[in-house]
Design a protein that fits this description.
It contains four helices and two strands. The protein has 178 residues and is mainly alpha-helical. The chain has one domain. The protein has a two-stranded antiparallel sheet.
Length: 178
């Protein structure tokens, strides 16, 4: 009975991850609209973009907001790929397919996307630091705690790769023995 529930939970989680891709596509569309807005807004203000903090105003070339928006679109495309990979992985797990070469390939691709998302996020942080922009977001402040979450995901992914490789090798040895 407990195995049935675990399979059901894995399948439901897989479906939820698949559904989560659609709002992320919506966010990507809004980011694209942001690029259009920055382009048209930048043309009217001599290709400069203004950050108004009330007590201080920072003018930056329009290039920087465009680069940041493009990098965010790339991050969200990678997140869509991660959700797709994780959904397929969990669906395979729900069918009892754990130690397969295909699962290892998916986990390795997942690791690459996780590292790329973290690297791009760091690049965006460097751009904001270069521009001396403060208080970018109330939710995301580019502090160490944001990178800790990424590191936890990367470590978990690495541990899963090691476990699945060991399991695949043990499974192969058992099949060869029989």
């Amino acid at each position: 009975m407990e195995v049935f529930n675990m399979k059901k939970i894995l399948k439901i989680t897989s479906n939820l991850l698949s559904l989560m891709r659609y709002p992320v596509w919506g966010i990507n569309f809004l980011l694209f609209l942001g690029i259009v807005g920055v382009l048209f807004g930048g043309q009217r203000s001599h290709w400069m973009f203004t950050f108004d903090y009330g007590d201080s105003i920072i003018n930056v070339p329009i290039f920087f907001p465009l680069v940041i928006l493009i990098l965010l679109i790339i991050i969200f495309i990678f997140i869509i790929q991660l959700l797709k990979i994780w959904s397929k992985l969990l669906f395979g797990f729900s069918k009892g397919q754990f130690f397969s070469v295909e699962n290892l390939k998916k986990l390795k691709r997942s690791m690459i996307f996780l590292v790329l998302v973290t690297a791009i996020q760091l690049l965006i942080n460097l751009i904001f630091n270069y521009l001396s922009v403060e208080n970018v977001s109330e939710v995301f402040d580019f502090s160490l705690k944001n990178y800790v979450v990424h590191t936890v995901f990367i470590l978990f992914n690495a541990i899963l790769i090691i476990v699945l490789e060991k399991g695949k090798n043990i499974q192969k040895e058992n099949e060869d023995f029989i």
